[in-house]
Design brief:
The chain has 6 helices and no strands. The protein has about 80 residues and is mostly helical. It comes from Gimesia panareensis. This is HTH-like domain-containing protein.
C-alpha cells in the first residue's frame, strides 16, 4: 500500500474514532515514517529515460560508452 493511501486511512481513523495520529498508525500496523515521507521527483528523469532507450537500441555499448554524449549532464549532479 502506498504512503498516500496509508495517510488517508489514518486520517479517517482519527476523525471517526477520535484517536491520536500515533494511535491510529499503531492500530493499523503501519510505520509512522510513512506519514512523514515525501517523494522527491528526480530532475534527471528525462536523461535516465533517454539512456534506457539507447541501452535497448545499442545493447553491446555498455554504460560508459552510452554516457559519453551526455557526460556533461551527468557530471553536473556531483
Amino acid at each position: 500500500m502506498r504512503p498516500a493511501r496509508r495517510r488517508t486511512l489514518v486520517q479517517e481513523l482519527k476523525v471517526c474514532y477520535e484517536v491520536s495520529e500515533r494511535r491510529a498508525w499503531q492500530v493499523l500496523g503501519f510505520p509512522q515514517a510513512s506519514h512523514r515521507y515525501q517523494s522527491v521527483l528526480d530532475e534527471r528523469a528525462e536523461l535516465q529515460m533517454r539512456l534506457r532507450e539507447l541501452a535497448t537500441i545499442r545493447v553491446r555499448y555498455g554504460y560508459r560508452r552510452l554516457h559519453i554524449p551526455y557526460g556533461q549532464n551527468i557530471q553536473a549532479r556531483v
